[in-house]
Amino acid sequence: MSTQANYTKMAVRLHWLIAILIIALLAGGKLMGFISNDNLTLKLMVYNWHKTIGLLILVLSIFRIYWRLTHKPPALPSEITGFPRFLSNAVHTFFYFFMIAMPLAGWAIISTSRFPSKLFNALPLPKLPVLSGIQGDERKALHGLFEEAHEILAYIAIALIILHVAAAIKHHKSGNDILARMLPSLRKKG
Q1: pLDDT tens, residue by residue, 43-60
Q2: Who's near 93: CB < 8 A, 6+ residues apart?
Q3: Hey, what CATH topology would domain 9-186 get?
Q4: How far apart are CA 12 and CA 182, in angstroms?
């Protein structure tokens, strides 16, 4: 285990950047369904930005996992034992899984869609190579499956975020420094 007391500045920045982007995409994903098909230009623009930000999250998450593997995080306080320690580790593991699986499911939707997608509303977005040759009924079936997986992952993400935030607040109220590790402004002066 690491003996350092805090996360690196890069880890903190990645945490908050990815968190903000994920929350924005979850909220935006819900709101996208309310855009009228009559306003196709707006709908395509918003969907393409959703896809672009989703793929940005994928790239940042891969870098974050690399950073985590090469820069050990601080150890949990010794008073956190048993099930709470297990739960903390499980939630973090699920977050890393989600940060890769959710954008990949989105990219699989793009790859099985009949509509073209554009990064930054300008550059053609390539299909996932493993899905590029699928056509007809198989494409439609896979598209529906990937859409369902993407939606289920979104609800799992919301539950994980709520659990994560609740645990951070609980730890902060109990007096340990776990939340201050990710919010340096909360660190005790001394």
Answers
A1: 999 999 999 999 999 999
A2: none
A3: Fumarate Reductase Cytochrome B subunit (1.20.950)
A4: 6
